[in-house]
Amino acid sequence: GARRRDILMQFLIEAATLSAVGGGIGIAGGWAMAYLISQVDTGDIPLNAVVTPDIVILAISVSVFIGLASGVYPAMRAASLNPIDALHYG
Predict the structure, then answer these.
(1) Between 79 and 14, residue with greater pLDDT
(2) Mean of pLDDT over the chain
(3) What gap in Å lies between CA 73 and CA 10, rounded to an integer?
(4) DSSP collapsed to 3 states, 63-86
(5) How many other C-beta atoms can be found within 10 angstroms of the C-beta atom of residue 7?
(6) Of 44, 55, 75, 78, which has the fewest CB atoms closer than 10 Å, so is most exposed?
(7) Residues 26 and 59 sit within 8 Å (Cβ to Cβ)
């Protein structure tokens, strides 16, 4: 008995959550790589790999935006399906 809006929101929230988690994993990997790069002796070449809060906020924002943008079409399609047809084609 869910309304079309409820189904649409469920799909969009799922897309945003998955994107935020993926972005968080990517940021953790970026921090680890920045640390490893900063430990490498580059001689006279200055190499400073830094992950700033601005970069973290930007990365999460872009990740969630892309997740929402890519989740809109499947959400709209799922919300417009007849429940009987959706169960039938499973």
Answers:
(1) 14
(2) 88
(3) 13
(4) HHHHHHHHHHHHHHHHHHCCHHHH
(5) 18
(6) 44
(7) yes
Amino acid at 60: I
DSSP string, the chain: ---HHHHHHHHHHHHHHHHHHHHHHHHHHHHHHHHHHHHS--TTS-------HHHHHHHHHHHHHHHHHHHHHHHHHHHHS-HHHHHHH-
Q: What is the pLDDT of residue 90?
A: 56
Residue 16 CB-density burial (10 A; 0-12 exposed, 13-18 middle, 19+ buried): middle
Number of residues that this document lists for the chain: 90
Predicted confidence at residue 45, as pLDDT, reads: 81
For 45-70, letters b (16+ CB in 10 Å) and e give eeeeeebeeeeeeebbeebbeebeee
